[in-house]
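Cross-posting from the modeling subforum.

Setting up a comparison between two proteins and wanted a second pair of eyes on the formatting. Protein 1 (sequence, then structure tokens):
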Amino acid sequence: MRSVGYQPAEALTVWAVSDGRAGIENQALGLAEALGRRTPIKLITKRVNLRTPWSWMPPGFVPAPRNALTLDSDAIEPSWPDIFVGCGRASIPFALGIREWSRGKTFVVQLQDPRVNPREFDVVIPPIHDGLEGQNVLPIVGACHRVTPEKVDEAVLSYPAALEDMASPRFAVLVGGKSKRQDISAKRARAIADSLVTLQRETGGTLLVTLSRRTGDAARMIFRTWLAPHCAIFYEGEGVNPYFALLGAADHIFVTADSVNMATEAAATAKPIHILAVDGQAGKLARFHQSLARRGCARPFIGRLETWSYPPLLETDRAAAAVLTAWTARAKAR
């Protein structure tokens, strides 16, 4: 859907800048692609990392970051983009510098909480559970992402196995792992596996499981031993990634409680999300799960299957609309 009103004469050049890690890069790409659904863009992905000792410095205090890039980083050089979308710590020194380098041409959008004064950017888009506030701050539920109905439908159709022919209800299980405060122990993994196998036996449904890079070795072994034999798909990183296809084919989605990204992506499908408990302290993630619950997206999984409905959570599209509105206001004022 294109936005009405002001449209640029030429496609906007948009940089999506991160350190290249999938969970970080996909947030920047998600917002950039959402901009492209509203106005023509030329999207360029930039992966950047700083050499030591510059990488040890607070990102707001890195002198001449363009001269401190690692050899495998993409160059941060002219011609400058119309919109810079940064995500993650590695992008921040470049987000802080690009308005000066571009002589004010580039509109700078920073995702997540940059832990730098938000006024240093044009727009900051943090998760609402971080509690960041400011005139140019747009908090969203969860994180920006790349999930759209078109992408998941295409993924289902192109996946090598006929997912929609598998027995219903189909359960997509998205397993995360270690984070700052949480993890999945072997004991917890066994409890998750047992509860899902019981559910599959009671319903006659199909288990479609994908593990994360963050899934620890001990938990991975437990899932491989006790859960994988009962799954139609058990993905550990080899072969075609089924992630989008699982979101499209599932009737229910199970997500471990450590992951903001996966839960937000699941909520874009409007399918019931069942949160699987993990070990450790939830901290700010408790507020995130409360936000999902208030919107009817997710409930804790307590061993029995519940079904409900809710409107899809489209926070990435809302953020893209706000960014284009702010960019348009500045373009008209210049």
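Protein 2 (same layout):
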Amino acid sequence: MSGPDLTSDLPCCKHVEEQLYVKTPLIESLPLSKRVGCSVHMKLENTQPSSSFKVRGISHMIQVKMSKGCERLVSSSGGNAGMAAAYCARKLKIPIDVYVPSSTPDYLKEKLVDEGASVHTHGAVWDHADMAARQKAEQPGIAYIPPFDDPLLWDGHETIIHELVDDLHGVTPDLIVLSVGGGGLLCGVAQGMRRVGWEHVPILAMETVGADCLNAAVKADRVVTLPNITSLAKCLGSLTVAKQAFKFSKERRIISRIITDKQCIATTCQFLEDHRMMVEPACGAALGAVYCDVIRDLQNSGDLRPDLKNIVMIVCGGLCVNSPQLLQWKADVGLA
């Protein structure tokens, strides 16, 4: 089954688009359900062609830009956003430059090159690479494709919610759990939930210590900039959360929680044992809501209902991991 037709739902979309993302499976997880005491369904965005949800919004944005005459693309990400942009550029036959920070592993750079991207290393963290990408985009005919902070991306990401409405057959979830990096997924999900009448359903937004720009903003009651990214979850590595994500946290029920890198890596390893799927730490942050008893603790404190029946867990992506890397992370946090 094909996903929702963006051209029929979105006023900004006046052209026919090629759907470059797939409708991902929604499957019940018995291990997660047993741990939390209610039904947990996993939305497997790690099965996308580019291995993450990012392809939804980025494919939409690129095609909007192309309809306006751009001849080349530039993106800034050594992770899921860069891969999604490179994949879409290859499928749509348009050249792309991807700027990555020096922390990007060589195997990820190689994947980008395999997709046909021209890869440039700039700066120590994503924010530095992003500045270089924005400078490149000042040249005529080049369109900048950001990783998370643009309404066109959120429009694409909200298709996750339309698919959930279809697959849940009229059942409204009691909770949706997701990871937050820069806030693009959160914005798309919150926007989609508003569109389908799920504004009353809380969102549990998970981050890791050291890549917790949303949690820092919630605590400060304003958007703040982290001094550095110290977490192993580099794909959550934005120093500043999208302003719209923080705005949503003020307008609707979004619960922000963080776990440690050690908890995150332990979660990733247990998820591999339970489901035979390897996901990155950025994805493990969301899964930690169950494996690290965050949901149980919220129920005990009265922040979540004790009688939850249906939870949706967005398994956001699995690109930024391989077996040697996972073993190294285990050693780094003292789990080896």
